[in-house]
Amino acid sequence: MTEEDEAAFDEFLAARSTALLRTAILVCGASASDAEDMVQNALEKVYRHWPRIRHDNPEAYARRVVVNGAISKARRRKVLQEITFAQPPETPVESPDLGLRDVLVTELRKLPARMRAVLVLRYWEDLSEAETAALLGCSVGTVKSQAARGLARVRARMENLEGASA
Amino acid sequence: MNVEEALREAMAAQVAGVHAPPSLGQAVRRRNRRHVVRFRTAGAAVLTAAVAVGVPVALTARPDTVPAVGSLAGTGATGSGAPAASASAPGSGDTVAVPGGVVPDVVGKSAAEVNALLKEAGYTVRVTKVVTDEAPAGTVFAQMPQPGTAAPAGAAVTITIATTAAPAPTTSAGPEDPRMPQDLGDLGDGRTLGGVHVGYLPEGLEWGKWSGKDGFGKRSYTTSWVEPGLEPGMYSVQMIVYRKDAASVLAKRMQGYAGQGAKPIEAGGRKAYLVSLSEGGDQINDGGTRTIVWTLAPGVGVEVMISPDYAAKLGEAATDKELEKIAAGVALNK
């Protein structure tokens, strides 16, 4: 690793590490410290292969490590209050003072890890279905169905909320 | 507002305040050194093996096979060394060989202007948005690759556009306040719920002071026990009791575990599955949450899990032993 490589890596960190950490937080649905650990792990892999991959979209590589790490590590660290595939509760909203965003983020966290990753990659990273599929190593069809199910879940929650405030 | 937009905004707002710490570079390099040490040890083993196999060959081989062994040692000693930088590395060859343009500096310009500019230069423009006060809304807040980086025509340039947050809901309840449900009220020591009694729990745990009903299907009941001082929303041991409809759903899941190759064990005289589960609870997953599931009586199923944090503290063997002991101690509450 030359000094120039080192400097370029620092530049890469300065430019991209915040974005990576944000994605990690959204994908993990876990605490910020878990996400940071995952990002460090991914960046270490990037650093290890830096001279080879620095001109070959290192960010995409790092993102792939983060997202797949988050999925395989998906663990129930927090108390499970309802089964993640269950229908949203029929009661309108438990706490009307919760803002729409909080509700959506909470809903996002309840989704299974892979479904959550699909939504984050599609709607936060703005990746296409094909790009998302390539990153997750699954078919485009899987991306479509996971996104549809995830969105349906979130939509149902949103309509509940709107119904309650109307 | 459609759901995609709402979700996009919620996600942006959720992480707007997050910034990577400046110490990240140091932390990454520190990790890398740890990795290199391990790699070096592994390299030495490979070298030994290569020499062991190589000696008889080397006696008859051409002299140019010897440096090959030498370069293996070099790679082992330097970790990510010069060999990786050569153009022979798969994947990097094309980008290096194609003389591309240079990515212009677009930070601070308006998004529309930048879009046209980059497209004209032959780049594919990818847009992400971030809610921030650090740049005027509608301007480019960050770009990737950095200005001045050589990139071939057709390469993707990601621009991050600053957006303003919509009026923020004035709730102070952060995601760390999970508002634990109290569906079953005060359970005393928390050991009796859903018609079952928990006779044994690992020492030092107390009731988590919450309970949920029907979250896991009609007639399901759940609560947890924690080590004192654990932050709200976390658990050490959680139990879910499934009855009637919920129990039949659990029974199907147990069949699923058997289908995935899990072997039943015996706990308290009953057949149980002791497995590591994914977040959704239907997949067996290495490194998942350690969970024991069994049918206590016709129409009554029980699931007990130990949180990954508590499991790490107990150790693998003790975690499994505790789960088996808890399972053996659960009985119908007569």
TrEMBL record, chain A:
One of its GO terms (molecular function) is sigma factor activity. Pfam families: Sigma70_r2, Sigma70_r4_2. Transmembrane segments: none annotated. Keywords: DNA-binding, Sigma factor, Transcription, Transcription regulation. GO terms for biological process: DNA-templated transcription initiation. Residues 104-153 form the RNA polymerase sigma factor 70 region 4 type domain. Residues 29-78 form the RNA polymerase sigma-70 region domain. Belongs to the sigma-70 factor family. ECF subfamily. This is SigE family RNA polymerase sigma factor.
TrEMBL record, chain B:
Signal peptide: none annotated. Residues 97-163 form the PASTA domain. The keyword Transmembrane applies. The keyword Membrane applies. It comes from the Bacteria. InterPro entries: PASTA_dom. PROSITE patterns: PASTA. The chain crosses the membrane at residues 39-59. Keywords: Membrane, Transmembrane, Transmembrane helix. This is PASTA domain-containing protein. It comes from Microbispora siamensis.
